[in-house]
Input
Amino acid sequence: MIEQLQEIQAKAGAIVEEVGSGVKVAVSYRNDSEAFKAVQESVALCNRSHWGRILVSDDDRIRFLHNQSTNDFNSLKAGQGCDTVFVTSTARTIDLATAYLTEDSVLLLVSPNRREKVVQWLDRYIFFADKVKLTDITNQTAAFSLIGPKSDELLQQIGAGEMAGQPYGNHQVFKVGGVEVRVGVGSGLASAGYTLIVDVEKSPQLWTVLSEAGAIPLGENCWNALRIEQGRPLPDSELTEDYNPLEVRLMQTISFSKGCYIGQETIARLNTYKGVKQFLWGVRLNAPATPGSAIFIGEEKVGTLTSYAETEKGPFGLAYIRSKAGGVGLKVLVGETEGEVVEVPFLTPPLL
Output
């Protein structure tokens, strides 16, 4: 039914492009200004079906994920969820994922270009006696995000209004237009909103219901500009084996009290002894710049630009800046482009 969904989106003006590994997404609906405005004033609808969805099941699933990532799964119950980071044994980042706990499984929403790597990474730590099963259900499901301040009103309109006001990560299955949909609190960005996961066969029906309820379609180009402007890190850009979760400022995903997990010793040591040498920041620029460019203060290199986008507010980037150089308000040079370090809402303020 992906073809039927694509036909519906094409009628809405979708420009479809391949984003890697044969995956095609709507990069724009020829309405970028309207979509940005919807994120600020009403509600936008983004197709995130190219993100990975991994089902972790069987008796040891909670203990297993608790030991394989940064957040505290043992404290969660069915119907709750959290963001968590999968890291290497030296605490280098693999991916930022969202986990939704159900009565008999955990559904992981992972980045588009990380589903195979995360499955392979987790599989290598399943030992003979472990009762853990990994199932990639990406192709059997679809995922949409509602983004914007009127998301609550739209949920009320489609019969899922009781999710309004619930904590981040909480989720529940509703009948929406006769279709079973898992609705989770959180848009994937710092903006208010919800993530909806549905059987792929029913995805055209759900998209139609949401569109008719007033959601404005938002393409991948807008999503990427928003995620850069808000500071959501992306694998191969901000999440690589060069950086750890403390440098990425994903403190909300880290439990410092849960005990041993992969990468825990390194993270605990860096946190205890204030050993973080650099932090991820936003950089407001006065002209375009290229990711990978060195960042200078005078003749001294103090960081690296990791992402860049043209936003509604002008050129903007994400960059790692040495902690000793400073933070908000710092004036920098990115290649030949002047910039100023600014805070971004997705990330936790660092202790400089």
In short: The longest strand covers residues 300-311.
